[in-house]
Amino acid sequence: MTRLQGNNQNRTVLVIGTLIAALLIALAVYAVRGNAGGGASGDTVDFDLEGQPVLGQADAPVTVVVFEDFKCPNCKRFEEEFLPEIRSQNLDTGKAKLVSMNFPFLAESARLPEDDSKYAAQAVECAFVQGGSEAYENLKQIIFRAQGPESALWATKSRLKELAQNVEGLDQARFATCLDNDETAAAVEADEAQARRANASGTPAVYVNGKAVESYDAETVGRAIDAATAN
């Protein structure tokens, strides 16, 4: 009996070890590729893209929609590691255009004293009001480069005004008034509502022609764009 119990214990240890190894492999794959926060991949979502910032040619046949939170480390990774390749292979070639939208939720989830996820989103929308997609994109990249911890309050309105001074051609007084008065709060809330209707479970949430993409790495997004082009 004792020996049989020992064998059962050995089997249990083996099973647990196998499960742990499988989990570690899965985590490694996740870290390398990154999972997107989109909804069910089989669903097709109709987005209202009127008046949204666009990278690429407006008449490109494929539309990539990306929801981001400026406090999201994976969004920073997408912007700095994967977007340059997506841009060179798909946006600059006219195959696709990329529409940026806001899904600010991390500050609220972290129960911070101020919702700096929304402040950052409002800031880029204020830049968009003045300078269109180019100003939006410029300030977006600047904010991501200055990104602080998810759990810390760092995207304050005063800090965002400092960062906006690096955007060429932006009327700083007008920008400050826009941000201080929450003039773009409605635009941010509209983006957030679209993200929730699309069942976005996190950020970055990537959709190609309305279909959620399982990962935000350049290879996976590129394959989704190719598939949409073929269809």
Automatic annotation (TrEMBL):
A family per Pfam: Thioredoxin_4
Keyword Membrane appears in the UniProt entry: yes
SUPFAM superfamilies found in the cross-reference section: Thioredoxin-like
Membrane-spanning parts: 12-32
InterPro entries in alphabetical order: Thioredoxin-like_fold, Thioredoxin-like_sf, Thioredoxin_domain
Keywords: Disulfide bond, Membrane, Oxidoreductase, Redox-active center, Signal, Transmembrane, Transmembrane helix
Domain of life: Bacteria
Entry-linked PANTHER family: DISULFIDE BOND FORMATION PROTEIN D, GLUTATHIONE S-TRANSFERASE KAPPA
Similarity field: Belongs to the thioredoxin family. DsbA subfamily.
Protein name: Thioredoxin domain-containing protein
Species whose genome carries this gene: Deinococcus terrestris
